[in-house]
Specification:
- This protein folds into 2 domains: 1-62; 65-191.
- It is 76% helix and 0% strand.
- The chain has 9 helices and no strands.
- It has helices spanning 2-15, 17-20, 22-32, 34-62, 73-92, 96-101, 104-119, 123-143, 160-184.
- Helix 3 crosses helix 4 and helix 5 runs antiparallel to helix 7.
Length: 191
Amino acid sequence: MSVFIAGMVVFFGLHLVSVLAPDWRDKMAQRFGVALWQSLYGVASVVGLYLLAVGYGEARLVSSFLYSPPVWFSHIAGLLMVPVFILAAAAVLPGWISRKTRYPMLFAVKLWALSHLLVNGRWVEVVMFGAFLLWAGLVRMSLKRRPPRRIFALPENKLNDLFAVVIGLGIYGAFVMHLHQSLIGVAPFGS
């Protein structure tokens, strides 16, 4: 359980810096240099995500249920997950999709978290997916108040939306058919 809590603190603590202390974040990026700051932030984020994933895997085995979702919720979750991978791809392949959603990765995280809250009723799952949903909402609100920062994305292209859809659907299919089971240990639609 302590690994899960450590992962939550590290991952979300880092990812809330821009929301809660944007001036401090900008000062640190200026002090260390943007490239070094982003590298340190990236490494710490991976460590936090690793701790969160390992801790979640351990806590899930002993966590009690808060609610037991109906089996058919898995179909709703499956439908909600279809645009998640497309939006994630659109975040680095700017085009009409990214323009219309403004922040496609945050939208993807919200849909991902919501779909997983529908089908996971253990308290550790509610805490984790609820935290991701809350975090994405807070970041989205904070982006309205702060100046935009440069993010990694390929140059805009007319075909980027097509690429985002094809790549997103391909990754979705791979997750449904094999990756979710092999990486997470759970078949999305049963076995």
